[in-house]
Design brief:
single chain, alpha+beta, conserved putative lor/sdh protein from methanococcus maripaludis s2 fold, 6-stranded antiparallel β-barrel, 4-stranded antiparallel β-sheet, 6 helices, 20 strands, 34% helix, 36% strand, rod-shaped
Amino acid sequence: MNDANFSRAKQDMQLKDLLETQSAKRFPWLWVWLAGALMVVGVSVWLWLRSGNEKSAPRYTTEAAARGTLVVRVSATGNLQPTNTVDVGSELSGIVDKVFVDDNDQVTKGQVLARLDLSKLQDTVAKSRALLAAAEAQVLQSQATVSEVHAVLARYRHVSQLSGGKVPSKAEMDTAEANLKRAKANEASAHASVIQAKAALQSDETNLYKASIRSPINGVVLSREVDPGQTVAASFQAPVLFKLAEDLTKMELQVDVDEADVGQVKEGQNATFTVDAWPGREYTAVITRVGFGSQESGGVISYRTVLDVDNTDLSLRPGMTGTAEITTLTREDALLVPNAALRFTPALGDEGEKKPGTSVVGTLLPRMPRQEKKVRVTGNSVASRVWVLQESQPVAIDVRTGATNGRMTEITDGELKAGMQVITEALRAQP
């Protein structure tokens, strides 16, 4: 390259540098604008990613753990019955002549409720009385015979004494003595006939008495199953003609307690019950008996439980259906949480595993599955877990639970305190 060409190239480079320097001095705001635009785009992208994560983040429904009274009740349904119900029947067969009472009538012990036709029974009694009279007459006749034979024997003995034993003969004396013994035996037989006739008469009179059906108790007639003219046949078993209740002011509610609840039900526990006839009214009762024998209905096992009921105002009637609530446990000043809190478990990744300083990309990475803690049963309490909300994140607290009424559960041990917000449900926002 010659000197002329080298000089020309050098001038071109100097001119280019000069132009670039002038351009930079002339447009310094261009670089600032480009840097600001890049910053705005970056912030916008970061905010968009963050808003997307916030929209997908779960929200929680919470309820405060609180101290209160836990009441555990067992529900059971049954029917009301009088404490003493008597079925009145007839031992005799016959035709009903008269009925003296009707349903709901008050009766007293010994009162005649109904009467059978007495014609045949009265005839039988009259016949028995006649037979008794005949037997008694036979006794008198036998006594007369004994007296007569005894007199003959006494005369024979007197004659024998006067004659020195020559008369009467020995055969005549033996016959006289035998006649006396025979007469005494006939007298004894006549007395026995009298006793037999009296027994027959007494039996017939008893049947005549039983033909009038009487009340065995003081009470009220619940039902009448007989009408005048009806034939009563008591050949194999006594037919039920009336059903009586002794005292309707004292009744019992017989309920069937499910086998899952019978372990909590004991004698002496208080209960309340309602009947459809009196909506809104609540009656009180006390358990008097819990049956050991089981009952099965439709594959369901239950146990008959009897509750004593006061019915002084007679508002309750036999057969009414009662729904009882038996109070099996009352625990004062217990720490209570909703049962939903014990059932709640956060979804994977909802336990607040995000650490401070984690990048946006890091929050999108998959996480390791969480290992659930196994529940252990210890004595009468159960080791369980609840989740409380701290800094918008669920935190697990191990607790031990006690009794429950189906809605609230008692916490007997653990770090949970009254006032802590326990999580009952997760509400994930819609995208």
